[in-house]
Design goal:
alpha+beta
């Protein structure tokens, strides 16, 4: 995850938004259960390989990673990158 920008939003609200990873991502595209993780097609790249490279592990339920394009982050990072909006707007979008 990248360094987070300063914001006027409380740390409590930021933490709450981060904790909603699975719910947040499922609003935008489907994830499938595969053993101890949720997997899906990564929405950030279209080149091959475009298999189920997008992962949320049960061991790290507050972080996603794409093993193909190497992007990773929390719920806020996902919304910010997916919708191409600022970090602060992404927090508000999740709320």
């Amino acid at each position: 995850m990248s360094k987070k920008p300063k914001t006027n939003i409380s740390q409590e609200n930021i933490n709450e938004a981060r904790s909603m990873l699975k719910i947040t991502i499922s609003r935008y595209f489907p994830l499938k259960r595969k053993q101890h993780r949720l997997v899906g097609l990564c929405p950030f790249h279209t080149e091959e390989p475009h298999y189920l490279s997008f992962n949320i592990s049960d061991k790290r339920p507050d972080e996603w990673i794409c093993y193909a394009c190497k992007r990773r982050g929390d719920a806020i990072d996902f919304v910010s990158q997916f919708m191409k909006i600022s970090y602060e707007k992404a927090i508000k979008e999740i709320a």
